[in-house]
Amino acid sequence: MKIDFLIIGQGLAGTLLSHFLEQAGKRVHVIDHFDERTATQAAAGIINPITGRRYVKSWRVDELIPFARATYRKLESRLSISIYHERNILRALFNTREENDWLARTAEEGYDRYMLDAAELEGYAACTVPAYSYGEVQHSAQVEVGRLARAYRVYLREQNAITEETFDYEQLDLAGKAVLYGELEAQTAVFCEGPRAKQNPFFSYLPFGGAKGEVLIIRIPDGHFEKILKHRVFIVPLQEGLYWVGSTYSWNYEDANPTAEGREYLEGRLRDILQIPFEVVEHRAAIRPTVKDRRPFLGRHPQFPQLALFNGLGAKGASLGPFWARHMADFLIKNVTLEEAVDIGRFHTQG
Ligand SMILES: Cc1cc2nc3c(=O)[nH]c(=O)nc-3n(C[C@H](O)[C@H](O)[C@H](O)COP(=O)(O)OP(=O)(O)OC[C@H]3O[C@@H](n4cnc5c(N)ncnc54)[C@H](O)[C@@H]3O)c2cc1C
Fold first, then answer.
1. Which of 66, 133, 308, 342 has the fewest CB atoms below 10 angstroms from its CB?
2. Would you say 147 and 318 are in contact if contact means Cβ atoms under 8 Å apart?
3. pLDDT at 351
4. What's the mean pLDDT when you consider all of the chain?
5. Ligand 1 centroid to 93 CA: how many Å?
6. So what's the pLDDT on residue 348?
7. Alpha helices of 107-255 — where are they, by DSSP H?
8. How far, in Å, are 45, 134, 315 from residue 12 at the CA level?
């Protein structure tokens, strides 16, 4: 079967790239073996414009958020799902210095649209141990990225456009200009494998990182919160009285499995915050596809131009994914020049 693009991996990166390629009229086939223990399935999908201890705007957030919102809205209507939830973030501030720093930032140009003067705690006021003070962020959101990938998978099945198995690099035939893989003949194969790219024989020369994260899904029967709270950990409302709590962040790990220490840490932080009962429903873990300089990985292979890579969404896939997936699609289809910051060429050359 002749196709334009073979996409390997259908997490958030593969889903968004397939979407843009299809929207441009290209024929896409995906190979993915579904795994619950992937970043896309573990993530809360928080889009947070103001991050870090210094309360700075995330990289290129003024462009990324409107583009992400428009993309997810489009996918919601394509797939008849609801995944993009606008939710303000309440940020706990723990002393005068933090409060002063926060207030100083709100006065800076370009920050006022994201940072509110006063925080409205809603239900959290009565149910949590109060912090010294709070800041509130708007234009933030929670995107159900796991649900998006699962819904897109159903759509791909309906189109007979997915093979649900592990990709076998040995079967790849790169003798001609095209890519041959079993019955499939594609102009380009794009690897969107998340942290598993470390094992990809063609791209493993790139400095992939990897940061493990553990999360809890809990029920708070008397919760009724709408906003996201960032206290010792994030508490993110899901549906039906469930909340996502996380996450841990570790560079040293043996595997992607949940650990007793991770659970203990998260439950401990929760007990520090919540003054009402909660029940743990699920404990998940996964590896984030991080890169040293925290910028995505886009590009074609230096020796095999029929092979390409879209990866490195790190800890911020929900906001970075749509904008850079579209850039990748434009690069693949229209040959636009990749922005230097995301071009894998910044880490040349192959060893
Ligand atoms: C605990 C945790 C919390 C997070 N919270 C947030 C958050 O709040 N906000 C945010 O923006 N981001 C968050 N992230 C980051 C976000 O999840 C990632 O940036 C994003 O999901 C990465 O998507 P991906 O498609 O690159 O990788 P993955 O999700 O790992 O998907 C890769 C896919 O490729 C498949 N695959 C890989 N290799 C092969 C192969 N050889 N053959 C077949 N299939 C293959 C895998 O099975 C998988 O389906 C979080 C991540 C973690 C772990």
1. 66
2. no
3. 45
4. 96
5. 30
6. 73
7. 124-127, 145-158
8. 10, 32, 12
Q: Token pair for residue 206?
A: 């790139």
| Strand intervals (E) in 155-237 | 162-163, 172-173, 179-181, 184-191, 211-219, 228-230, 234-237
Residue with tokens 């699609």: 329
The CA 233 to ligand 1 mean position distance, Å, reads 20
pTM over 0.85: yes
Residue 350 has pLDDT above 90, yes or no: no
Backbone angles phi, psi at 94, to 5 degrees: -105, -10
Say if ligand 1 is within 6 A of residue 217 CB.
no
Which of 142, 193, 214, 323 has most ligand 1 atoms within 8 Å of its beta carbon, as the pocket-test mutant? 193
Residue to mutate, 32, 162, 307, ligand 1, most ligand atoms under 8 Å from C-beta: 32
DSSP letter at 195? G
Q: What is residue 182's DSSP assignment?
A: T
Burial 117-134 (b: 16+ CB within 10 A, else e): eebebebbeebbeebebb
The rounded percent of the chain whose pLDDT value lies above 70 is 99
Is 199's C-beta closer than 6 angstroms to any atom of ligand 1? no
The H or E element that residue 4 is part of is: strand 2-8
Residue pLDDT, tens place only, 4-49? 999 999 999 999 999 999 999 999 999 999 899 999 999 999 999 9
